[in-house]
Every structure is written in structure tokens, then in C-alpha cells.
Design goal:
Layout lengths: L7 H24 L6 H14 L3 E2 L11 E5 L2 E3 L14 E10 L2 E10 L5 H18 L8 H13 L4 E2 L5 E3 L6 E5 L16 E4 L2 E3 L5 E3 L6 E3 L5 E3 L2 E4 L6 E2 L4
Antiparallel strand pairs: 1-4, 2-4, 3-12, 4-5, 6-10, 7-8, 7-9, 9-14, 10-13, 11-12, 14-15
């Protein structure tokens, strides 16, 4: 496993890439409303990324046809935007986006309410977000990679939610997906030792029901097998000698 340790110059480029992605997510969040199509969200995100002088890194990645992954309700990740998919009051929508700035990638995801949502849906979103923060309490130099996984699992499990196992977090830098893979569920081994200069995308994907997922016929969209709601929360972080730095927070 070749995990890259970023130089100070690379860290600065990663910081800027992630700062710009934070702006994109904030703008998208402010525009989410019932009645808009998932295609509109994608176009808005694509235009904004390019206006910031960057390249959307999801577009054409392994053939993915859009710049923003837009996943609604029981869609876990990689939902393909469509003019026919209209957001309704009470939906939840996960936006996963990334960009390339001067050769360096950023990656972040957020799940948003569309208008007024149920208390159960709100709780799922909040727990998923908090599980990320529980995980990165362990993201310190000298700790082990799976300390992060175990902390996420320990937090989520008390709510009886399903933690998606087929999709995991990852390293990030000059490539969107670098080593190591970062599970969101408990591991028996320690994994590699964390070092300052590692940049990681931590991304819990949590289902209200069972953990099981299936891939749709489009070969991209992943949905919960039992039709339950799913939420996703992701940031790109930097391992430092002290507390981790969350690079994609606006």
C-alpha cells in the first residue's frame, strides 16, 4: 500500500482545492428546493466549479456522466442527475462533489433536507454527520487507520442504523482515489499508522434500515436493498502532528 505523504507545497494546493469545493457545496446547499430537478443541481455545480478555475473531477471518471453525484432518499451514492428527477418536499438529497485545482483533488459530500422533512430523516442526517466527527477524533499522527473506522462504527451502531460496507473512504491527492481504503465499520486489525501529511477522504454512508445495498441497472446508482433512507457525509482531511485539519469545511 503506497500512501502518499504530502509536502508543504502540496498541502497548500490541497487546502486551496478543498477551500474552493467548500464554496461549491455552500452555494448548492443554499439553492436546494422542492421542484428543482437533479439535473439543475448538476449544471449549477459544474458551472460554479469551472467559474472558480477548476475542473469537476467526477465528470467522465470511469465513465460517470455528470459533475455532481445527486442521490435522493434511498439512493446511497452515485445517483446520476436527470431532468426527470424532481425533488419533492420531504425528500433528502445527498450531493457528492469534487474538483481539481492545479492537479490536486478535493472530495466532499453532504446530505440536505428538501423543505420540511420527518424527524426520523433529520436524525439520520445528523447521526451520519456526527459519525464523521466521531471518527476524526482518532485521526491523529501515531494512531492507526482503523481507529477511525472503529470510532464511526461505535457511534452509529447505538442508533441501530446500517453502515454501508461495499463503499469506503480513501486517500486523496493527485488522484481522486489513492491508498488507503478507509472502512466506516469496525475492523479487527489496526491498519496502517497515521502520519502527518496524509490527506484522507472520510465518508460515512449510513442507512436508516439494513446495511445491504444494490447497484441499479445504470451501473452507478447504489440504493438501499430495503428501500430505507440513506445519508452521506464526507470531508477531505489532513493528518497533522496535532488535531486533524478539515480541509473542505466552508
Amino acid at each position: 500500500m503506497a500512501v502518499t505523504i504530502k509536502s508543504q507545497r502540496e498541502i497548500e494546493l490541497m487546502r486551496e482545492s478543498c477551500r474552493l469545493l467548500g464554496i461549491v457545496h455552500k452555494e448548492l446547499e443554499e439553492n436546494i428546493r422542492p421542484g428543482m430537478s437533479t439535473h439543475e443541481i448538476d449544471i449549477m455545480g459544474d458551472v460554479l466549479i469551472r467559474k472558480l478555475g477548476c475542473i469537476p473531477n467526477f465528470k467522465n471518471y470511469n465513465g460517470y456522466p455528470a459533475s455532481i453525484c445527486v442521490s435522493v432518499n434511498d439512493e446511497v451514492v452515485h445517483g446520476i442527475p436527470s431532468k426527470k428527477r424532481i425533488l419533492q418536499e420531504g425528500d433528502i438529497v445527498s450531493l457528492d462533489a469534487g474538483l481539481i485545482y492545479k492537479g490536486y483533488h478535493s472530495d466532499a459530500a453532504r446530505t440536505h433536507a428538501v423543505g420540511e422533512i420527518s424527524a426520523d430523516a433529520r436524525k439520520l442526517i445528523d447521526v451520519t454527520k456526527q459519525s464523521f466527527f466521531e471518527g476524526i477524533k482518532m485521526a491523529k499522527a501515531g494512531n492507526y487507520l482503523y481507529d477511525i473506522s472503529n470510532a464511526i462504527d461505535a457511534y452509529v451502531s447505538q442508533f441501530g442504523y446500517g453502515i454501508v460496507r461495499e463503499l469506503v473512504g480513501h486517500g486523496i491527492g493527485t488522484a481522486l482515489h489513492e491508498d488507503p481504503q478507509i472502512p466506516n465499520f469496525a475492523q479487527k486489525r489496526k491498519g496502517l499508522k497515521l502520519q502527518a501529511g496524509m490527506t484522507l477522504a472520510i465518508e460515512p454512508m449510513i442507512n436508516m434500515g439494513r446495511a445491504d445495498v444494490v447497484w441499479c441497472d445504470d451501473d452507478w446508482t447504489v440504493v438501499t436493498q430495503d428501500g430505507s433512507l440513506s445519508a452521506h457525509y464526507e470531508n477531505t482531511i489532513l493528518i497533522t502532528e496535532g488535531e486533524p485539519e478539515i480541509l473542505t469545511l466552508y
